[in-house]
Structures are given as C-alpha cells and as structure tokens.
Write a structure and sequence with these properties.
By secondary structure, the chain is mostly helical. It has a domain of 29 residues. 52% of the residues lie in helices and 0% in strands. It is built from two helices and no strands.
Length: 88
C-alpha cells in the first residue's frame, strides 16, 4: 500500500490523457510549470523576509508606540435616536 508501480503510473497517465485530451496536454503542462515556478518564487521570498526579520536586532526598526490622536476618541454622548424623549 502506498507504493506506485509502473502499472499505476501508466493508468494515471491514461486517465489524464482521457480527461484533458492529447492536444491540450502541452498547454496544461506549461501552465502547471509556470504556476509551480511562481509558487516557488513566492515561498523563497517569504523565507528571505522571515530571515531578515530574525536577523534584524530589536530596536533598529521604527518605534511601535501608539500615540492617540483626535480620531481615536470615543463619542460617549447618547444618541437621541436610540433613546426617544419621554412624554407624560
């Protein structure tokens, strides 16, 4: 179980040919190859970015302090629409 014999590979190739057709196989193989190339490039770039983050010493980057601004204020006044005036 789990071992691929040459007969299994032959059956897989025949199924792929039946699904895609012999004329479309080169196009499919080319697009799969391009996709793998892009995927490998992205993985390599992510690894390089991670290595750069690890190698950078703490404190050399921009400060991570949050300074509150006027847009950070929370309006605590009640909304008149949510509490209609009482009439007695």
């Amino acid at each position: 179980m789990g071992n691929l014999s040459p007969m299994h590979l032959l059956i897989l190739v025949l199924i792929i040919v039946l699904i895609f057709g012999a004329s479309r196989l080169p196009k499919v193989a080319s697009s799969v190859g391009q996709s793998l190339k892009v995927f490998k490039k992205e993985v390599r770039e992510l690894r390089e970015d991670d290595e750069d983050d690890v190698n950078r010493t703490p404190g050399t980057g921009a400060p991570q302090h949050h300074t509150p601004s006027s847009t950070d204020r929370v309006d605590t006044t009640p909304d008149s629409a949510s509490h209609p005036p009482k009439t007695s």
